[in-house]
């Protein structure tokens, strides 16, 4: 049995959610796909899928094996594509998405730099504060600030983003600096609904999670307006660190209670490795990975 071929078939079944769909994508007959899966399970001596007449679902062993198979196949693809990248000038269109503020601050400058180096490339950047279905919406890659729970995608880690509490110097002078998370129950807060419902803040103390119900005069679903209201002294705010860092550097906001910050959120470039990634996309992923890593380390 060709192990790499069997792993490729297994990954496609898992990502497609169907033996028939996997067979169609791979250009193989359904019996051939079934035989390869059966041979793989026989060799591993584990069941990778639970199968009924209507659905197919990964077993716990299957989910574990899938993660390793995806990485192995992705690594092989990267090595092969790297041999091509040095010889081919990229051309064509790349579509990617990123959170609005992060995209404006970090992704867009990287794109401008890349397009100046590769004039035959066209990039379509979608700045959206929502998780998109990449396959359905025709997106090649995404920058996401979250834990990635989707086993059908590959996440290339870039770094971590802090979740911080901040306030204007004027507000701190008026109310004082809160000493504990529970203090925010009695202080005016900016209810930014970019964090869940916006009515609850989360903290961490020695790995213990603390939730605090908050209230305030202003609630908004857009980060720019929420940050501006915080800068103006309307209330305390909880934001991702990059969203407020320009005002922190100017001294217009101060970060407080950093010892109670919840665990940082990972930043990743996400893509579907099951597609045969074109060289233009592979080259851009490598470039964007380097640019964003540097920006996060220096920002």
From TrEMBL:
Keywords, alphabetical: DNA-binding, Transcription, Transcription regulation
Domain spans labelled HTH lysR-type: 1-59
Transcription regulation recorded as keyword: yes
GO molecular function: DNA-binding transcription factor activity; sequence-specific DNA binding
CDD domains reported for this sequence: PBP2_CrgA_like_2
InterPro entries reported for this sequence: LysR-type_TF_proteobact-type, LysR_HTH_N, LysR_subst-bd, WH-like_DNA-bd_sf, WH_DNA-bd_sf
Gene Ontology BP annotations: DNA-templated transcription
Protein family: Belongs to the LysR transcriptional regulatory family.
Protein name, as recorded: Transcriptional regulator, LysR family
